[in-house]
Specification:
Blueprint (H helix, E strand, L loop, with lengths): L19 H4 L5 E2 L10 H18 L1 E3 L2 H10 L2 E3 L4 E3 L2 H8 L5 E4 L8 E4 L2 E4 L7 E3 L6 E2 L2 H13 L18 H15 L11 H15 L12 E6 L4 E2 L1 H12 L3 E10 L7 H22 L5 E4 L1 E5 L6 E2 L3 H17 L3 E4 L10 H16 L4 E3 L4 E2 L4 E3 H19 L5 H4 L1 H7 L9 H6 L15 H6 L5 H15 L7 H17 L8
């Protein structure tokens, strides 16, 4: 990392082209309407009872000595030799009840702090992609430059609440240094809340050290976490040592974990969605309960990432009706247990940012919005089942997200909004283009698209016949050019760089992923 002075985020010229940065509101997105629920109370209780049967009678494996010791001391039935645990439902529910119903995820810029819980909706662009693609350079292994570009896009997109975490794998950065660069660059080039990797104890401890550099030695967890991480259960019914080490480390410091079973019905669970949801619930509750053994009151998010496989190929199938069912029911279960919920907002299996990508993504985003999902991951840019991030789709998804935010504002019902005087003024026939009411309101009467093209065919053809992908390609480059690095204290910046240089040397011959 080069040592540079940061600059305060400046304004943008009024003549600049429109982008998500200019179109989306900057405040917390909330769903003002009741959550849409597809399972009845009786059906939800059936899922709960089935998941309790799994935990009590089938059990799960926790491949970590510390985790096994905690379960044994808590009174669970354990087979230490095989890392197998059977947990009484009363113990599970007692522990889950200790998890908070919501928390503030604090940013280094206090104005960016966001609440997770209730009807609050927070969005995260994308994470874990191996490849990056755009229509000029094509598909390629991700690089540090790609990561920086995505960080800048994330910072400039007001609809995204959380800074990037591993938005693309940096293949040109040594393995032992990736987590250091990922967290530091995201924290320097964005002032939004910053996620961290939970890939084992060593990496998690490094994330906590950098968090202390940024936020102070006393992280003040009572005021809310300053970082958090996603862990995936090795479905079916296994927590591996890396995930356990990372999540328990975060919990000790009072930071949050998104406990996320990754279940493909037909592969990692039985083929029926009822069985998949019962297994998801069992796996999620067991992880949430363990975190409360580590640190009672530890903030946590119930993660849902359940969908089906394609029965013709055995490949994951994202953006499906079954995946939508899982999103809705997962949100209901999280509310039942009084914890925030995580879903995903642009999942698809398309290989290019085409109509399939858009359609399948909406099958993920709409269920998240309607079900009051508190943390929507993978909201922008996802392609190829999560293998690739597309810069063009990033902007295309941002348009959909902006429209969702506008939708959640709801219509206005004031006396002026009913405009009875304007209706009387025009009367039968005529039009309202020239009325005082229209002239006064026309600039912000409706959602103004920054990417969609509403010109007629003739005008569009004369302008060059650009499709939405071509327009998105131009727009993401404009957004990056308009980027302004948020201010960071020079001493903090330098201390981060010094830590990375020192730690990189220490980890050079350490197997982080053994």
């Amino acid at each position: 990392m080069s040592r540079t002075r940061t600059r305060r985020r400046g304004g943008v010229k009024k003549s600049a082209p429109k982008s998500p940065y200019f179109s989306m509101p900057t405040g917390q997105m909330r769903n003002p309407w009741p959550a849409y629920e597809i399972a009845s109370e009786d059906q939800l209780e059936e899922i709960h009872n089935a998941s309790m049967h799994i935990i009590e009678n089938i059990g799960m494996r926790f491949l970590d000595d510390e985790a096994m010791d905690l379960w044994q001391k808590a009174g669970a039935k354990v087979d230490m030799a095989n890392s197998h645990v059977w947990i009484d439902r009363d113990l599970i529910m007692e522990l889950v009840s200790k998890a908070p119903s919501g928390f503030n995820f604090r940013a280094r810029n206090p104005e960016r702090t966001r609440y997770f819980g209730g009807n609050a909706i927070n969005c995260f662009a994308n994470a874990g992609m191996v490849f990056a693609t755009d229509i000029r350079r094509g598909r390629r292994p991700g690089t540090r430059d790609d990561y920086l570009t995505l960080t800048k896009l994330t910072q400039m997109t007001n609809g995204i609440d959380v800074a990037p975490l591993m938005s693309v794998v940096m293949h040109d950065v040594p393995v032992h240094q990736k987590h250091l660069e990922d967290f530091a660059l995201g924290s320097i080039y964005s002032d939004k809340p910053m996620m961290g990797r939970t890939h084992g104890r060593i990496i998690a401890e490094d994330i906590m050290t950098m968090s202390k550099i940024i936020h102070g030695e006393d992280l003040k967890p009572e005021e809310g976490p300053v970082t958090g991480g996603i862990i995936n259960v090795n479905s079916p019914l296994v927590y591996d040592d890396r995930m356990l080490g990372g999540m328990m480390t975060f919990a000790k410091y009072g930071q949050f974990t998104i406990v996320t079973p990754f279940i493909l019905a037909g592969a990692m669970s039985p083929v029926t969605m009822a069985a998949a949801m019962a297994q998801q619930n069992a796996e999620a509750l067991a992880g949430i309960a363990l975190l409360q053994l580590v640190n009672p009151g530890s903030p946590v998010i119930y993660g849902g990432f359940t969908t089906n496989v394609d029965m013709k190929s055995g490949a994951p199938a994202f953006g499906t009706p079954e995946g939508a069912w899982a999103l809705f029911i997962g949100a209901q279960l999280a509310r039942k247990y009084g914890v925030p919920y995580r879903g995903s907002g642009s999942l698809n299996m398309a290989n290019s940012p085409d109509a399939q990508a858009a359609s399948e993504s909406m099958w993920s985003l709409w269920p998240c919005i309607l079900s009051h999902t508190n943390f929507i991951a993978h909201t922008l840019g996802w392609l190829e089942g999560g293998l690739t991030v597309s810069f063009e789709k990033f902007v295309m998804d941002a348009e959909n997200l902006a429209m969702m935010q506008h939708f959640l504002k709801g219509p206005e019902y004031s006396q002026d909004a009913f405009a009875l005087d304007a209706i009387a003024e025009v009367g039968p026939a005529g039009h309202h283009f020239g009325t005082e009411h229209t002239q006064r309101r026309y600039t912000d009467a409706f959602y103004p698209p920054f990417l969609a093209d509403r010109r007629n065919f003739g005008t569009w053809t004369e302008a060059g016949s650009e499709d939405i992908v071509q327009r998105a390609h131009k727009l993401w480059q404009i957004i990056v050019k308009e980027y302004k690095k948020p201010a960071m204290d020079t001493a903090v910046h330098e201390e981060l760089e010094q830590f990375i240089a020192k730690r990189s040397k220490e980890l050079e011959n350490v197997e982080l992923y053994d």
